[in-house]
Write a structure and sequence with these properties.
The structure holds 2 protein chains of 2 kinds.
Chain A: H1 2-7, H2 10-22, H3 24-51, E1 56-57, E2 60-61, H4 62-79, H5 83-93, H6 95-100, H7 106-141, H8 148-173, H9 175-179, H10 183-196, H11 208-215, H12 224-230, H13 236-266
Antiparallel strand pairs in A: 1-2
Helix pairs in contact in A: 2-7, 3-4, 4-7, 4-12, 5-8, 7-8, 8-12, 8-13
Chain B: E1 3-15, H1 20-29, E2 33-46, E3 51-55, H2 62-70, E4 77-82, H3 91-97, E5 98-102, H4 114-124, H5 129-143, H6 158-170, E6 176-180, H7 188-205, E7 208-212, H8 216-222, E8 225-230, E9 233-239, H9 240-247, E10 250-257, H10 260-264, H11 268-272, E11 279-284, E12 289-295, H12 301-311, E13 314-321, H13 324-347
Parallel strand pairs in B: 3-7, 3-8, 5-6, 6-7
Antiparallel strand pairs in B: 1-2, 1-4, 8-9, 10-12, 10-13, 11-12
The chains are: A mainly alpha, B alpha/beta.
């Protein structure tokens, strides 16, 4: 029985994967655009390192920064699958109703859908960018290729990040049920997230006090943690702490989402029809 | 008892809106709420295997009731039971027993071939392979899904999509089927097919069907019983025949005659000894036809025809019964008049 309950959500993931494949054009455009962003920040950082005297900024060397920029791109690509987008669509088109008439959990179906999308993005282009980066690392930078253990740790942490991001996004998306219009809020959220998760600037660049505050927010667990694990910045006890922090955020956000969902479904009106 | 609704009310609370730009600004600071009773104290029960027409004008509260029965909305007061389950308390358990078609929406996956949607639904409702095969065979028979089974849903015509949606709602062989305007926007042939399919499914599985519609023909062809609600309140619950008996008392006979002047001289009141108010005659010179509308409790249809046959030469006769749509119109108007009276009463 337990087994079947999860099996129900597998088709959601698979279908999202297929759906993404059906719109190939838009997906290649998406890859191109986001790659563009990664290269912009690459050149920006290179300029900054070029004019700095020490060669180490925010605890990162020039080479580490290159890795940081591209691994942020790889990871962010996997993590930033917007559940809010699905939810907003569902609310605007009244499709929430169609979801609620089925014997399934709405949130789990959304997350499964998102995981399907994550799977697709892992295949195209994340894994290839990653492999390319490893080759570059070995051939140009003269560094060792990442160890299997580290790669696994990175993947586990990324999976946690994906879940944290989606559980957070679900709570955020519930606002769509109240406001029915999310464009402005989504823009604000994306700006805030790219700043707080370390996508724009590594968190180690912030003053000590801000870093402490960021430790208490879920955002650093969404992106910064796996990338830093990849860079090998966490070892031993520190590694256990950051992974535990991710798990705690998963539990907390899951609970919060359940609570908010129960509150909000009681006052569902804006479903149309 | 398959469906049981006991004193259910649903109240919607929304912030008060004011007109104009000034109003929009005012709305930001005011905390006033508007309460609207969408459904007020409705009770009814439906037996297994019944096809019930649930009708009412726009905004009468039909969809709200359906949504409460599916567990999407929670009643403000009162309680529903569907197949022994309270839908708002155990939504997922209830969902396993019901199938729903909202005519204006689709539950199919828009971008995928129809076959994929059915595969997903098979998983969701935990339909076994054998059941799936058997049910698909039956659905193909009544809905003819095969011809577009591999096409993406977004490429289907409205009629095909509706058939597909009906099939999707029936895949897990639900005990109760809710159809919210299933024939909206369809052409006559497709409408007919959909109705036939609904009837066949009802006959084969004794599926209970609750149908909301504005299409009177749907009701006449499918439903043995109707419930009419207006402004959130139930105003009629009974068989279709009974409704016609009660409200459809006027009959209409149209006769094409050879000589219209002669026909007009026929004086029914003196011949049949009934008051003049009991009937109404309108004549149309162009087509040489006379139309007699009369109360069927005062006059018999055969008497009327016989009198005309005796006194003039009749070429053609047409007998019309009052259409349900007209009855419904009368009932709605009746409801509104009552309300107006109440309001006047309050003023004075």
């Amino acid at each position: 029985m337990k087994n079947r309950r999860w099996g129900v959500y597998v088709p959601f993931a698979l279908n999202e994967l297929k759906r993404n494949l059906a719109y190939k054009g838009s997906f290649y455009l998406f890859i191109l655009c986001s790659c563009f962003g990664a290269f912009i920040s690459y050149y920006l950082w290179m300029a900054i390192y070029g004019s700095s005297e020490t060669g180490i900024l925010g605890g990162l060397t020039r080479n580490e920064m290159i890795l940081y920029v591209f691994m942020t791109y790889v990871t962010g690509n996997l993590v930033n699958v917007e559940i809010v987008g699905y939810m907003e669509n569902d609310v605007r088109e009244g499709a929430v109703v169609m979801n609620l008439i089925k014997p399934i959990d709405y949130r789990l179906s959304l997350i499964s859908k998102a995981l399907g999308c994550v799977g697709y993005r892992f295949l195209a282009p994340s894994i290839f960018v990653w492999i390319g980066l490893e080759i570059y690392k070995a051939a140009v930078m003269g560094m060792n290729v990442i160890s299997i253990g580290n790669a696994l740790l990175y993947l586990v942490s990324t999976l946690f990040s994906v879940l944290i991001y989606q559980l957070f996004d679900f709570c955020f998306g519930l606002m769509a049920f109240v406001t029915t219009y999310m464009f402005g809020l989504k823009m604000a959220k994306n700006a805030l997230i790219s700043f707080l998760t370390g996508q724009l600037i590594p968190i180690s660049f912030f003053p000590e006090i801000f870093q402490r505050i960021f430790d208490f927010l879920p955002f650093s667990s969404m992106l910064y943690t796996p990338v830093m694990i990849y860079l090998g910045k966490y070892t031993g006890e520190a590694l256990a702490v950051v992974l535990l922090r991710q798990v705690i955020w998963i539990v907390v956000l899951y609970g919060l989402g359940t609570f908010l969902w129960q509150r909000i479904t009681k006052r569902l009106i804006v479903l149309g029809g | 008892m398959e469906i049981e609704v006991r004193n259910v009310s649903k109240e919607f609370v929304s912030p008060k809106k004011y007109p104009g730009l000034k109003g929009a600004v005012k709305g930001l600071f005011s905390n006033e709420k508007v309460r609207k009773m969408a459904v007020e104290d409705i009770s009814f029960s439906i037996e297994q295997g019944e096809i019930v027409g649930y009708i009412g004008s726009n905004g009468a509260g039909k969809s709200t009731t359906i949504k409460m029965l599916t567990g999407i909305l929670e009643p403000t007061r009162g309680e529903c039971l569907v197949h022994g389950i309270n839908p708002s308390k155990e939504r997922k358990k209830n969902a396993q027993n019901i199938g729903v078609v909202f005519g204006q929406r689709t539950q199919l996956w828009w971008d995928l071939p129809l076959s994929e949607s059915f595969t997903i639904l098979k998983e969701i409702y935990n339909v076994s392979d054998d059941e799936y095969k058997a049910q698909m065979k039956f659905l193909n028979q009544v809905l003819e899904l095969e011809e577009f089974f591999t096409r993406p849903v977004r490429n289907l015509s409205l009629g095909q999509r509706m058939r597909a949606d009906l099939g999707a709602a029936l895949l897990h062989n639900p005990k109760v089927l809710y159809l919210d305007e299933p024939t909206i926007g369809l052409d006559l042939v497709v409408k007919d097919n959909i109705r036939k399919a609904i009837r066949e499914i009802n006959e084969k599985y004794r599926t209970t069907v609750v149908l909301t519609t504005h299409d009177i023909e749907d009701i006449e062809e499918l439903c043995s019983r109707i419930i009419i609600i207006d402004d959130g309140r139930k105003i009629y619950d009974g068989s279709l025949a009974e409704l016609k008996e009660k409200y459809g008392v006027t009959r209409k006979v149209t006769m094409e005659v050879k000589n219209i002047k002669e026909a007009l001289q026929v004086d029914l009141s003196s011949l049949l000894k009934v008051p003049k108010e009991a009937y109404q005659i309108t004549a149309e010179m162009g087509t040489n036809s006379v139309e007699i509308a009369f109360d069927k409790h005062c006059l018999g249809i055969s008497e009327v025809i016989a009198q005309y046959m005796q006194h003039t030469e009749v070429r053609d006769i047409q007998i019309q019964e009052t259409e349900l749509s007209e009855i419904v119109k009368v009932i709605y108007r009746h409801g509104m008049e009552q309300e107006n009276k109440q309001e006047e009463g309050m003023v004075s």
